[in-house]
From TrEMBL:
Superkingdom per UniProt: Bacteria
The species this protein was found in: Ruegeria meonggei
The name this protein goes by in its record: Terminase-like family protein
């Protein structure tokens, strides 16, 4: 037998392209990862700057099949999986969906949610502030808050405290680099700071948001403050 490398049979060529297709995957990210480079480049170029900013927070694009809520009428949803299966992220995204609604300006079906964990620290450090927690998977520019009331706030049975005002109104202010760049009146406890607004305001990076509830009798209340990074 010859040891000359030229006498060895040629190795078969290996197709390094993924065999997965859009029909094999429920997630858009899986389809995009298996597509040709030209398809990926076209997709990323056509969705625009706003789409690129929103894409990390569109969980239906990234979710694996076991992270998608079951269809139909159900009361309990159990995800059985090991470490890294995406259980915390799936739960956080479902909570975000029912609170914020499926679209940026939609109302959710719940305003208060009970988070249950083995300990208080686990709820806080994993489910809320963790790398897959609610705050981490929520868009920084989609702001919501809970209104206050001056009357009957200690005894109420609805999803929200009684308004006790003729109408619901809030002042939203945006501050950047020590200067106020925007003030807006909204009639619901939700506000979306869009990419177009930020461009108009010259805002990039860290900015501050202040929100005050407005009373027809007393005017604006105390401002709540949030720094968005």
């Amino acid at each position: 037998m010859s040891n000359n490398i030229t006498d060895r049979p040629e190795l078969p060529k290996v197709d390094t392209q993924s065999t997965l297709s859009a029909l094999d995957l429920r997630s858009g990210a899986g389809w995009l990862a298996s597509a040709d480079a030209a398809v990926r480049d076209r997709f990323l170029s056509e969705i625009g700057e706003g789409g690129l900013c929103a894409l990390p927070f569109l969980f239906e694009f990234w979710a694996l099949p076991h992270q998608v809520p079951p269809e139909g009428d159900w009361r309990s949803w159990v995800i059985m999986g090991g470490r890294g299966a995406g259980k915390t992220r799936a739960g956080a995204e479902w909570v975000r969906h029912v609170v914020e609604g499926p679209k940026p300006l939609d109302k959710g079906v719940a305003s208060r949610v009970a988070l249950l964990g083995e300990t208080f620290d686990q709820v806080r450090d994993v489910m809320i502030f963790g790398v897959s927690g609610i705050l981490q998977c929520s868009p920084p520019d989609h702001l919501t808050w809970i209104r206050r009331t001056r009357l009957d706030g200690d005894d109420w049975a609805g999803l929200e405290v009684p308004l006790a005002e003729e109408s619901e109104s809030y002042i939203v202010q945006v501050w950047a680099n020590g200067a106020q760049v925007r003030e807006q009146i909204v009639t619901e406890p939700i506000w979306l700071y869009t990419a177009a607004m930020k461009t108009t305001d010259g805002v990039s990076g860290t900015y501050d948001v202040q929100v005050a509830q407005v009373s027809a009798s007393y005017g604006p209340g105390l401002f709540a403050h949030l720094t968005v990074r």
